[in-house]
Amino acid sequence: MKELVNQELLIFPKYQMDAKNIKCPLEWWRKHEAMVPTIDFLAQQILGIIGFQIEIERVFSLVSILIKLRRYWL
């Protein structure tokens, strides 16, 4: 496995991503997945993480502010 990843890392720089022209990195990886399948798998796992925790953090932050305001006013 380590040998396969090392081989793909040598090939990968040939497929440069132009950040200005790429709107969705996942689409780029889907298009190029056959060329570097192991790195592609890792990239899609990382890029596919849903950002739902960000919203939860925002809610807890808002609730914290509201609790502090309630304590201040009561």
Account of the 3D structure:
The chain is mainly alpha-helical and 74 residues long. The chain has one domain (2-73). 69% of the residues lie in helices and 0% in strands. Helix 2 packs antiparallel against helix 3. The model has no long low-confidence stretch (mean pLDDT 77).
Gap between N and C termini, in Å? Answer: 62 Å
Multimeric state:
single chain
Report the uncertain regions: none
β-strand percent reads: under 5%
- What coarse outline follows from CA principal-axis ratios? elongated
Largest sheet: none
Report the count of strand segments.
Answer: 0
Return the average pLDDT rounded to an integer: 77
Class from secondary-structure proportions: mainly alpha
Tell me the domain tally: 1
Helix content: 55-70%
Count of discrete alpha- or pi-helical segments spanning 4 or more residues:
4
Task: Annotate the secondary structure layout.
Blueprint: H1 2-11, H2 25-32, H3 37-47, H4 52-73
Helix pairs in contact: 2-3
Properties at a glance:
single chain; 74 residues; elongated; 4 helices; mainly alpha
